[in-house]
Amino acid sequence: MTRMLLWGTANPEGMENEYKGIFLNKSDIKSMVRQVEEANRGAQKIPVHLEHKGVPVGHVVSAWEHSDTLQCVLELDESVFEGSIGSEFVRNGICNELSLGYSVDLQNSEKGMTAIKKTLKEISVVKKGARHHCQIHAVTGKGK
Length: 144
Known about the structure:
It contains two helices and seven strands. It is an alpha+beta fold.
């Protein structure tokens, strides 16, 4: 299997833990790291997509928290067509940002809606992410 490894920031600095909205707080970032670790111990790894669409082009190899941000290493499978295209998008600087795909469980009360659990579904390589500073910092192989 031919592969490309990427290192990047998947989420900027988390909100304070008192924050209960849809963005990630510092505790949520730690939870996402644990979710990646648990997935990698099992058979169902966290997938990597292009622009949150289509078939997976790879998977999340590892994740860690650094200065309250979510860092990750992603592996793109260049032996499949979609992964090969994704790798070329990264090498040529077309897609140089990352974006998280996660679900949010909400709880409704008289105080309003509160996010109680966030589950990582995928990480996407994207042209332009929704959050600032979520960039690919390094790649294996040629280019960039």
